[in-house]
């Protein structure tokens, strides 16, 4: 009897616990929708679209030299982990006139990963501010039209985030200057939204 109990504790319980938590993420986890149906970035720059894409959206502004840390944090902690998923992309919005700065940044990022899914959209001040306002967050752009926060946008152009974050309550975006936040929060939330779409795809395939 003792041997059976020990075997259960050592081998069965860890497996049960793993299956419980795995099923919690893959089958029951759903990232809350905070803002529905934001505008498509194609209205600003028709070289980039949000519709039918899972997008990490950022506003790097015109002071790109001082935003390299944000870009590299995102590249290393989020992009490199998930960029091979279908329909996944990064979209960074910058003011027009910064194309050469973006090219230099992409070149540096390209030394660390395939940057094919790093997309940059260019707009004027009014377009960028108007688009940011459509997110309906509690955040703001600075004088360079930038914010350190990045956002998860689903395939239907809905802003996803957290409604019961332990630190902020409603959490619209993720502070890309904080490696801890990217590791401990954003990575988990990206996993959840990708799992949502994988599950939906499996259900659709099974019903055919």
UniProtKB/TrEMBL annotation:
Domain of life: Bacteria
Protein's name according to its UniProt entry: Membrane or secreted protein
Organism expressing this protein natively: Maribacter arenosus
